[in-house]
Amino acid sequence: MYRANPAEPAPQLSDISIAGDPLALPHLLPPVRRHPTTVAEFARLARTIAADQGRWRPLVRYDATTRWYARLETGPGYEVWLLSWVPGQGSGLHDHGRSSGVVTVLEGELTERALTGSGEARRTLRTGGQRVFSTGYVHEVVNDALEPAVSLHVYFPGLTEMTSYAACRARTDTEQAGAGPSLG
């Protein structure tokens, strides 16, 4: 081997090695995907998916006999559902068991009727409208419009139970405060 300066020591030829576990070096690993953990992050997830029409629009189907739905995504402790509603279709009055959620209208408009401790609330959710709810929330969603609607539902934790309420009315002023909706 030729050395320009014979006084310098000869370089050692050896294999390059990494001491320790190369997978323990964070810069060598792909970034860890961060999953939503707060209500605001789940609402942001729903808005992000809503904005990506190429992701959900080709999947939408309409069924005149029942609401159409498909699970779009799952992650640690949550799931995302895509639903379509032809005019007149509704969910019936229900809760979501131990799950909280975010409903986002992707197309059209939906009417929500919710029963609370202070009575009944009605609201119309139009395209881009979003509703966040916690456990124990009793509501009904209906397409009262003349055009079909599409909605995105994020449940956290994932939806494992729903309680349907066949006949339910809001608490009247004469009923005990804090009793919540009455079944009947």
Q: What does this protein structure show overall?
A:
By secondary structure, the chain is mainly beta. The chain has a domain at 33-160: Sandwich (Jelly Rolls). It is built from two helices and ten strands; from the N terminus they run H-H-E-E-E-E-E-E-E-E-E-E. The protein has a five-stranded antiparallel β-sheet, covered by helices on one side. It has a three-stranded antiparallel β-sheet with strand order 5-4-7, with no helix packed on it. Strand 4 (109-116) and strand 5 form a beta hairpin. The termini are far apart.
In short:
The chain is built from 2 helices and 10 strands, in the order H-H-E-E-E-E-E-E-E-E-E-E.
Per-chain topology:
Layout: H1 39-51, H2 53-56, E1 68-75, E2 78-85, E3 100-107, E4 109-116, E5 119-126, E6 130-133, E7 138-142, E8 149-156, E9 168-169, E10 182-183
Antiparallel strand pairs: 1-2, 2-8, 3-6, 3-8, 4-5, 4-7, 9-10
Protein name: Cysteine dioxygenase family protein
Family: Belongs to the cysteine dioxygenase family.
Pfam families: CDO_I
CATH class annotation of the domain at 33-160: Mainly Beta
- Rounded mean pLDDT is 83
What is the name of the CATH architecture of the domain at 33-160?
A: Sandwich
Taking all Cα atoms into account, the compactness measure Rg is 27 Å
Major sheet size, sense and barrel closure? 5 strands, antiparallel
The CATH topology of the domain at 33-160 is Jelly Rolls
Q: What is the percent of helical residues?
A: under 10%
> Can you identify the CATH superfamily of the domain at 33-160?
Jelly Rolls
Q: What portion of residues belong to β-strands?
A: 25-35%
Q: List the uncertain runs.
A: 170-184
String of helices and strands = HHEEEEEEEEEE
First-residue to last-residue Cα separation: 96 Å
Silhouette: elongated
- What topology, given as strand order, has the largest sheet? 1-2-8-3-6
Broad structural category: mainly beta
Report the count of strand segments.
10
Oligomer: single chain
Distinct helical segment count: 2
Pfam family, one: CDO_I
Protein name: Cysteine dioxygenase family protein
InterPro entries: CDO_1, RmlC-like_jellyroll, RmlC_Cupin_sf
Family: Belongs to the cysteine dioxygenase family.
